[in-house]
Design a protein that fits this description.
Elements lengths: L1 H6 L4 H21 L12 H36 L7 H26 L4 H27 L9 H23 L5 H16 L11
Helix pairs in contact: 2-3, 2-4, 3-4, 3-5, 3-7, 4-5, 5-6, 6-7
């Protein structure tokens, strides 16, 4: 059994391929819950505009999750790119991470259907927390098990861990705002995403 554990799950390429597939499926599933307005309910341009407006908030939540998955995909790829090889323990942590990815369409549908309910918002945030926790655990495992490239600069590890911790702190702050209003909380989460996805590289961000 110990010999099997030594040889199992060592391929970073296979792990990356599995991750790409799960992310692709999760991102695709998001759009399947979006439906065009019913033809029977639309009789004019105004009716169509109103119907599209009604879909708008739901579409925004699904777009928010799409960006979230994109951020976490980039985060995982940044880790995998620095691995010399994997092992059984690290592979299972990444599989657990992909389970959290697999849950995102459910938590998104829950939030889209119950946008004004704090429970739905907290369930969505817990999904993000699980993603971040497992991504952080995977990097700690990789470094602790000496699976990273030997020529990797020391600051890379610090930057990866700092980025995850700061992002999760900001997400948590956004989730807490649901005590005020769930829409305020959602806007805050979107701003966090924009910061990590498209914000310009300000001087303080070069260290993250």
């Amino acid at each position: 059994m110990s010999l099997y554990n030594q040889i199992a799950g060592r391929s970073v390429e296979r792990l990356a391929a599995l991750s790409d597939g799960v992310f692709a499926v999760a991102m695709t599933l998001l759009v399947l819950d979006l439906h065009t307005p019913a033809v029977e309910a639309v009789h004019s341009e105004r009716d169509l505009w109103l119907a599209l407006g009604a879909i708008g908030p739901r579409l925004a939540i699904y777009a928010m999750t799409f960006v979230t998955l994109g951020i976490f995909w980039n985060g995982q790829q940044a880790q995998l790119n620095h691995l010399a090889h994997s092992d059984r323990s690290l592979s299972w942590i990444h599989i657990a991470f992909l389970f959290a990815v697999w849950l995102t369409p459910f938590s998104t549908t829950l939030l889209a259907g119950f946008t004004t309910y704090r429970v739905a918002l907290l369930a969505y945030w817990l999904n993000i927390l699980l993603l971040g926790t497992l991504l952080y655990a995977s990097w700690v495992c990789a470094v602790g098990s000496h699976l990273v490239n030997q020529d990797m600069p020391a600051h890379v590890s610090t930057a990866i861990k700092r980025r995850i911790l700061i992002a999760q702190s900001l997400y948590a702050a956004g989730a807490l705002l649901c005590l005020v209003n769930t829409y305020v909380s959602i806007v805050c989460i979107v701003l966090v995403q924009l910061n990590y996805a498209i914000a310009p590289r300000l001087p303080w961000r070069r260290k993250v």
